[in-house]
Amino acid sequence: MQQVIVTGVGNGIGAAVARKCVAQGATVIGCDIDGPAIERLAREFPRDSFFGEVVDVGDLGALRRFFGRCTERFDCLDGLVNNAGLYHGKSVYKYSDDEIDRIIAVNLTALIHLSKDFAAHVQQTGKRAAIVNLTSVAGEVGSSDALYGSTKAAVIGLTKSNAMNFAPYLRVNAVSPALIRETAIYHRIPQYRLEEYQRQETLKEPILPEGVADVVMFLLSDASRHLTGKIVPVDNGAYPR
């Protein structure tokens, strides 16, 4: 693991992954819509270990230009973490048409295009690489936010299908967290859903972004070299499946 792209790098899981990558000697190329968060994160790292850009992954043109700059900067890329996502925590009846289009663009369409372009680049180099997608327990058991749940279910299908399509050069796996504290999403979850998540957990140590990042790092690493097309839950034992 040498050069890793991380979307949604500014906060939460993305920032935790970036910190762990840099700590292990990797270079992170990150993007986020939150410019100040990228600037704060960049100040934590040694020079030339982190390159952050303000990019709206829901804007396909901007996303493609970002990836073009990644390949210009580095001949070989070793990992892609598709972490950027939107969650509104509201009823499907309250979504506007524009909000529906936006959440699909960020949570699914961006992953389709960035994964495809990343895979094509890796196959040209002849190297091996790994993609890790962030899905959610909501994609497995449903969500009170139907748009979020359906896009995260689609990420599960995309992970399995891309694992077939991108082999043998790339491994493609996903991490499926449940209730993660210290994230923007946590504060948007309706109270009754928070209580349901907590009731289902059999392990009681709160899940933090760093705990999810540990699993992402495993899936990026050679230690998971025999895994592809897998959905790894990080859920404190909730929703056994």
TrEMBL record:
SUPFAM superfamilies reported for this sequence: NAD(P)-binding Rossmann-fold domains
The UniProt family comment states: Belongs to the short-chain dehydrogenases/reductases (SDR) family.
Identify the InterPro entries for this entry: NAD(P)-bd_dom_sf, SDR_DHRS6-like, SDR_fam
* Superkingdom of source: Bacteria
Species name: Paraburkholderia sejongensis
UniProt keywords, alphabetically = Oxidoreductase
Q: Does the keyword Cytoplasm apply?
A: no
Q: Tell me the protein's name.
A: SDR family oxidoreductase
